[in-house]
Amino acid sequence: MTSELVTAVKEETIESVKNKLQINHIHHIPVIRGKHIVGMISLSDIHMMEHHFTLFHSKLAEEINQKIFSTILAQEIMTSQVIKVRDDEQLSVAVGLFEENMVHALPVVNKSGQLVGIITPMDLVRYAYDTKKLI
């Protein structure tokens, strides 16, 4: 689990969210209100938007996308029905959620519902490698 999180807020522009994803080399960003998760945005969501808005194949397309992305807010594209796991649940619960929901990141929340981390399939691979056993 990653506990040092990069997050966004609902009022943040997609341009800002995209920059955070790129600068931090991450693929998913939780959208929060206070310490509670209210949505998720993935790099795939951003790429899908780029392909929908792009009419040209050039530097011009990047400039146009940047202008468009500076007007769209995170709350407009985030997935608001977030599948999450509690920090006191067994690892098998997370594995089951990945399988059932076909997601690539699970926010981890505490008993109060506050975001405390995020787990990805790569975390599961690292765990299996470090413990020398399959889950």
TrEMBL record:
<dbReference type="Pfam" id="PF00571">
    <property type="entry name" value="CBS"/>
</dbReference>
<dbReference type="InterPro" id="IPR000644">
    <property type="entry name" value="CBS_dom"/>
</dbReference>
<feature type="domain" description="CBS">
    <location>
        <begin position="1"/>
        <end position="60"/>
    </location>
</feature>
<keyword id="KW-0129">CBS domain</keyword>
<dbReference type="InterPro" id="IPR051257">
    <property type="entry name" value="Diverse_CBS-Domain"/>
</dbReference>
<dbReference type="InterPro" id="IPR046342">
    <property type="entry name" value="CBS_dom_sf"/>
</dbReference>
<protein>
    <submittedName>
        <fullName>CBS domain-containing protein</fullName>
    </submittedName>
</protein>
<feature type="domain" description="CBS">
    <location>
        <begin position="78"/>
        <end position="134"/>
    </location>
</feature>
